Amino acid sequence: MKTLTTRPNLLEQVRDAILAEIASGVFAPGDRIIQTEIAHGFGVSRQPVQQALAMLRNQGVLQDAPGRGLVVAPLDPDYVRHMYDIRASIEGVAARRAAELSAEQAARRGPALIKAGRRAVAQLAFAKMIDADMKFHEFIYGLSGNPLIRPTLETHLTYTQRVMGEVLIRDESSKAIWDQHEDILQAIARGDGDRSEALMRSHLMKAAAVMVERLRNGRKRA
Question: Quick check: 70 and 31 in contact, CB under 8 A?
């Protein structure tokens, strides 16, 4: 674990750092999360760790352990499918609005995000792959001009990071994901709302299919 610096957003830093540890496999489903160990590892007091763990519990990443404490929650394929149904609907609208309102910004700023994502895949840098994916989708939310999209999807995005860490980054489809991202970006940059929405919906439902299949197969092997 790396030491975290004390800043106004320390709580968010701690939450993100714990989530990254879970997503990268440092903590597996069923592993007990010990506040004191987390605080010591990150070089922070127990208070922000306690608050961060409560946030992750509310977001479904952690669950109550038998007796006392928290453990990493198992991934539920049905929950993942339902979550992606919601994301596909909302993010489809976001992509359409981005095309209608912000085509020029998409063309100017988007290619750097695609480049960063492809570079992370080439490097097999799992944490960077997840971060790049989140930044691309959040970029589209910003282009949509709708300030309600990001907070509405907050819990789902947190769970998505967890799922990607355990499933998607171990799958050979990572390159295809960035091909899909680039197609979405190009449609938005052309101002094609219909195409942008359709591609975003298709992209998310394909991702859901891969993740659900891997999770179900994992359960069978277990």
Answer: no
